[in-house]
Design a protein that fits this description.
about 325 residues, alpha/beta, 5-stranded mixed beta sheet, 11 helices, globular, binds 5'-O-[(R)-(carboxyoxy)(hydroxy)phosphoryl]adenosine, binds zinc ion
């Protein structure tokens, strides 16, 4: 079955055609990132106005590139949340209009679950149950999946999301937005053991907290004053990145242990980070846990993962109707 996916949860406008939940035939992505840079973060009003402008052309491109006739699409799968309200409603309204006019079934899917599903695209066979970590600009959450319709939320961040911490630390260091890629690049030139940062304690052992380390970096930088030169910044970036990744690895492997699983799937924008991949792979190997990541382009927001997850859930009998709305939780 051919599924058209639509994703507009944050600053991307994406449409994709995926066959049988696995084969990506097209995955068109248009980002409004450049319009947000000067503000140091995503401006919701700009994001959804750009999405309104782009959505039709992006969907047309995805259909055209897939070579699939619109009449052959068996399902329209759309991100229904969590995300920015105006952005989500743009994608949902577009998907509903298409579903109604072409008489194609409609399904709203969860954005975080679709980040996990990105691991199964391109014919990857991964047996369930698994533990999963989603690390993005808006979320840091651990899940236990018996199946894609049986997902248990194990824990989440008590304050800032992991990607948000990268973005805020980059701002403190004057490196621009988004922070993840610049911090990663700078960290390569720094010493990860140079500065002792730490992540705050959490209520539950699987919860996350990244707000304290961001404040720690802020005070450290203030304390340095004008002395903080290039090497100093690289050491801060490396030490911050290492501490954050260590917390992610430690808690994810603890979740595997507590849920008695030996497989972990990782997804979301921060999963692009090469140091994170390296540390996860080596720590998981020691614990005899198989660790999976999507290809880098599928870690970031895209509609192929939405189409793939939609197919799985549709097979299990899930459907939405025209009352579908944004779910911000
Ligand atoms: O999943 P995503 O594209 O959007 C959300 O759903 O939030 O994630 C975006 C986040 C941003 O905070 C960005 O700084 C972070 O992912 N990110 C990275 C890297 N590339 C993007 N974080 C660390 N290292 C990277 N290489
Ligand atoms: Zn995302």
């Amino acid at each position: 079955m051919y599924v058209l996916g639509i994703e507009t949860s944050c600053d991307e406008t994406s449409a994709a055609v995926v066959k049988d939940g696995k084969n990506i035939l097209s995955n068109a992505v248009s980002s409004s990132l450049n319009f947000h840079r000067k503000y140091g973060g995503v401006i919701p009003e700009i994001a959804f106005r750009k999405q309104l402008e782009k959505i039709t052309a992006v969907a047309e491109l995805a259909i055209q590139e897939s070579g699939v006739n619109l009449k052959k699409i068996g399902l329209i799968s759309v991100t229904s949340g969590p995300g920015l309200l105006g952005s989500l409603l743009t994608g949902i309204s577009f998907a509903k209009a298409l579903s109604l006019t072409l008489n194609i079934p409609l399904l709203g899917v969860n954005h975080l679950h679709s980040h996990i599903y990105a691991n199964l695209l391109d014919n990857k066979l991964i047996r369930l149950p698994v533990t999963a970590l989603v690390v993005s600009g808006g979320h840091t959450s651990l899940f236990y999946l018996k199946d894609f319709n049986k997902i248990e939320l194990l824990s989440q961040t008590q304050d800032d999301a992991c990607g948000e911490a990268f973005d805020k630390v980059a701002k403190i260091l004057g490196l621009g937005y988004p922070g993840g890629p610049v911090i990663e690049k700078l960290a390569c030139k720094g010493d990860p053991k140079k500065i002792k940062f730490s992540c705050s304690g959490t209520r539950g052992p699987l919860d996350f907290s990244f707000s304290g380390i961001k404040t720690g970096v802020l005070y450290y930088v203030r304390g340095q004053g004008p002395r903080a030169r290039a090497q100093g910044k690289a050491d801060i970036a490396a030490s911050f990145q290492e501490t954050v990744i260590d917390a992610l690895v430690k808690k994810s492997l603890l979740a595997c242990k507590l849920k008695n699983t030996n497989r972990i799937l990782i997804g979301g924008g921060v999963a692009v980070n090469a140091r994170l991949r390296e540390k996860f792979l080596s720590a998981a190997k020691e614990e005899k846990i198989s660790c999976y990541f999507p290809p880098k382009e599928l870690c970031l927001d895209n509609a192929a993962m939405v189409a793939g997850l939609g197919f799985r859930l549709f097979q299990k009998g899930q459907r939405s109707d025209l009352s579908l709305s944004a779910d911000l939780n």
